[in-house]
Amino acid sequence: MPFAEGQQDFDRLIERQGPLVYKLAFARCGNQADAEDIFQQVFLRYLTKKPQFADAEHEKAWFIRVTINRSKSLFSSAFRRHTQPLEDNLAADSAEQEKQEDLADLAAALGRLPQDLRTLIHLFYYEDLPCAEIACLLNRREGTVRMQLTRARRMLQEIMTGGDLPNR
Which of 99, 124, 119, 104 is nearest to 26 (CA)? Predict the structure, then answer.
């Protein structure tokens, strides 16, 4: 296959799967820099492994699974355990600033959830995956996924209303 044709195929793949990979990575790690690193690692893995997909759903599932695995690797790295993030301070007009504060509150509340519950919230609400598909992707029973989503919603509600995380 000529280089230009292969590049076009890869560009189309990034257009299809890139938003999913980035959003899931961001949901799992909570910051832009790490999400970008994971994004790059996932597509590098694609280029090195060259997996063959049976259909679009198989392709999507592969990218979700690899993104989750790459984010797990990031969290377990020695570098990650010995660093602290810098905070961004951006000025905006009051309406935009209020919107940004609301989003920051939601992001902070999501950040307080355990990582596995954040992943469930992202896959269910942002990727619109049904519980059955999430269960298949995460190797869990469908009932377990539903129960964990309910737990995540309750925990978010408790956090957003000013409470603390309930005991597990």
Answer: 119
